[in-house]
């Protein structure tokens, strides 16, 4: 029986029509026209007609390179590359700290977000003022790399990440769903940037090899100019492509979240059992305590991305129980780390490093408790997934606030 007859026979069976379409979209679309001609008044087939023949009207006839925002993105990418190269020159001269390299990229990503979202002037002025004040303040710090100065440098990316979140969310910075979109953007951005960076590294290796055949060593020039410029410009291009809903990154992130959550849980369980078996003590071993905190941050990141990839109306499944187990495990690790830090503070005194680690662990511990209680209510069918996502998104500014405290007060207090 011809497929167009099957389409007509299954007009009242949407599931069968969908199955036929997925089995062979090309044959279905070709045969559909005959079924549509015979039943032009069918509302079901009219919906399918629009689905199969729909074309975007906004960019019809326009080149990808002339789409709205592309030229602005291109200008920002070139400016980011140029500024990064200029800053790198002063870093090489050791007149400014290497952390200033961020100022060659972050302001331009923020500018792209602001251009795309057009927030209120007060939001724009606030973002611009914070960038200027931070840039001025960071370069007032002495280049002695004391603990307090190093901590300020270490917390600067977190502060910038929250600041970019404000630029991304615009006027809706208090909206949980917009904050959730920013977290999803970050995961998609990292995947896309890494993919393009790998391609760039292959090109760089090929270029260096080709020039080596004619006895020319361009490695230093190439990395100081071409690679550095390209890496900075690529950060703006990646932000543009992700914001254009590129399917590559958007479609792969849910699968990554589902694959990595059980793997991280299994690895962490094996690691903790091994640690107990060999008798490692975070109370006495400083390096092990730092590694413990690094593991905690990694688990927290995986858990957050797993939560954000969950649809607001999705029912609970095995992934939720894995995420809940990860949260409980992370909470145990954080409790041990907190106890060790308090022990070291009481035994060896206050230092900027210990105080900073204590603050971060308290913040994470509080956030994990909130997420765990929200997840518990969800698993008991007392609330939906949105309450778990709220526990993640509403807490984000707290991390930025703590980063600001470390950046702007620690060098003054401890120096």
Automatic annotation (TrEMBL):
Keywords of the record: Membrane, Transmembrane, Transmembrane helix
Taxonomy, superkingdom: Bacteria
Keyword Membrane tagged: yes
Entry keyword annotation includes Ubl conjugation: no
TM ranges: 70-90, 96-115, 122-138, 150-169, 190-211, 223-243, 255-278, 290-309, 321-343, 355-376, 396-414
Name assigned to this protein: DUF4153 domain-containing protein
UniProt organism field: Solibacillus palustris
